[in-house]
Specification:
With about 210 residues, this protein is mostly helical. It has nine helices and five strands. The strands form two sheets. A three-stranded mixed beta sheet has the order 3-2-4, with helices on one face. Strands 1-5 form a two-stranded antiparallel ribbon. The longest helix is centred in the first third of the chain and has 23 residues.
Amino acid sequence: MHPAAESWKSALERVDRWFSDARERLPGVIPCRPGCSACCHGPFDISVADALLLREGLAQLPTVERDGVRERGRALLLRMREQAPDWQPPWDIAQLGEDRFDATADRLSAEPCPVLDAEGRCRVYAHRPLVCRLIGLPMMTAGGFVLENACPIQDRFPVYASLDPQLFDLEALEVEETTCVEGAAMALFDSPLHRGFETTIAAIAAD
């Protein structure tokens, strides 16, 4: 594994432990489980560090699975290009602009993530992007900022929906992310100028 991807994966595992600790302290409250893919629909942005880590995960899949993911990624990418015909490789969201990307994502919000299997499980769970790990719990960062729970079906679980934000030092993670995105930019583009590159899972899956 590329050192930048390995470092980012290690940093992201702290988010997983934060989530697991909350599950242990709140037994039966958090409904997230393997196969629940309510939050795994529609295009969303991922960082260059996420993109590198995702590529590592996809490379580890058996050939048949990887080919299926590539086919679904290309299909979703085609749907996105129907909304934005001028969007081109390397599929940088900055090329579209935030407003156009958000509009495209809204129109395709029901489209499943290309890496989901038939049971709604993530094929690259250990290599999934940061945003995938943040959904499912409200967070209070060490700096006092609150990130709301983005689970789209939380209204079905009133106790879960009313959870207080759980403390996590997101700022420390963001410091590590700075180093990881620079390393990932060099790995994918051979240039640190691409450290702000953002794309979608479909674009990486289709490659």
